[in-house]
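Entry: Parvulin-like peptidyl-prolyl isomerase
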Amino acid sequence: MIDTFKVKILKGVGVAIIVILIFVIGFGVGHIGKSTQKVSAPKTKKVAEGTELTQDYIRKFLIAYYTKKDLEENRSRYKPFMTDGLYTSVVNMENEPVNQTYKGYVVDQAFKSADIFIDEKNHTAIATINYTNTLLKNKGDYKDAQKNVASKNTLRLTFTKDGKKFKVNNMSYLIVTDSANVTDTTNSYGTLESASSSGSNTSASTGTSGSGNATSPTSTDSLNSEE
């Protein structure tokens, strides 16, 4: 004869064991899932802007330097990217009478694009910048103005560490010359030469150079940090 009391006890024990097993298995799976999630999603380290020499950082400097309503207007924007010595040199260049002559006539300059090549070992970069501006016959008078005049500059930038941040310490304007014959010392895209002040269409302070533009000559081919 079957002992119903013992049967009930055995059923109760069996149910309890099953519940315990389900709890243990569920806890184990959840713990493994959390561990996997932690391993697969490591925290990304944020790099402060300017602590590394990158295309994005150099492009931000070029945008600040080449975008301006008028001469001098963008000083507060490009200053954070320069050493104090270079900033002083640029301001002095902009204040020269030959550059002040064009103030109010070459306006609405806007950065468009740049091809940037970085030499990380020597902390230098060469950038070819495309930009536009507007040429006025009379200050403040946009009648008969030449708008969206396209220009191009090639710059060699030298950087130095100022604390933890890279800053521009030297800017040299370059002329890209075509080369018919490729040699060991001349690349197929031409040679890079420092822009001379005589016979060149270059303005180190205003950035208004290129064909068809009103430009101001420069007394030097590069801007250096003043000691």
